């Protein structure tokens, strides 16, 4: 099959990439269950960017819904510590051959899973601060990430961090499955699954509680950066829970009564009476403020865990806080994300929402040919896109002088790289 005009076609590690000719020197830098990522040079701007190709986005309604949701979430994010979208394109020239689309995003040098060795406290503090700034923004928009881990936290040589991968993210009002977050960074409530993460009735307790599963993951990542090794390295989900309780201690009857699952209650009751470990012994390299913050994030009972906003007020971050790091996002409307649409309707929604010229042209061709997609659906998608764009595009530029000074001061002697970075 020949590439479309002004597109080039090549196979990289058994995946066919078809991209505009301006993107050269493609190199795979990541792959996962739902997509592959290549770094590339935009020859027109001399800018290095990352391109994500989703795996079979229109294989089924479920795949198409996931692809549409990821596109919308990426377009919604307008914070310097959260990955955003630069462009969308497709090699397709018509609806019938529209099987793939590509997401163009900022290129980041590496991710935290590749940064080796013990990290200095200044570096840990700066990285955790950025994680929490990004999380605060995401949570304020009504989104729970659900998959925070070192591999989903991109960093560049100056230790600037962005939260990646919204493949598992959900709105706070969405019903959630229990299988979220790579096991080692999974909050105990996900394993115990006592609330099933369903915000029935949309009570504030349930919503806040759900956001806090991301804060457990931040605590695990912070602990790993301090000690240079994974904190809870369970062999399976049962062992993971045991590893957690060997550190936090086995909870008392009040906690056990919160568990909806009889199996979970019986499991916790049957555990040996592990005492809570002393965090100052567990993290001898950490400062008193660092230990206190860890203790308030790695709380077994999610109801008692710090929110991202409260964590940012902790004395550990004194001297780093900048009000400009805390922009207020537009609320994310996920009502359309959860609609029961056909495969063709999901494809049309993705085309319309992308704003890519070619995709919009294909959409209009298909819409004119087939009026099966209701006008109400079209207007709902357009209204959500317009409201989100008008609210978020007014945010001020994020490259601020004051913060650049702070970054320079830290990065000057603790730059991030993929080698051992002790110091």
Automatic annotation (TrEMBL):
Residues that coordinate or bind ATP: 53
Residues in Protein kinase domain copies: 23-317
Cross-referenced Pfam families: Pkinase
EC number in record: 2.7.11.24
Substrates-to-products reaction catalysed: L-seryl-[protein] + ATP = O-phospho-L-seryl-[protein] + ADP + H(+); L-threonyl-[protein] + ATP = O-phospho-L-threonyl-[protein] + ADP + H(+)
GO terms assigned for molecular function: ATP binding; MAP kinase activity
Family: Belongs to the protein kinase superfamily. CMGC Ser/Thr protein kinase family. MAP kinase subfamily.
The protein's name in its UniProt record: mitogen-activated protein kinase
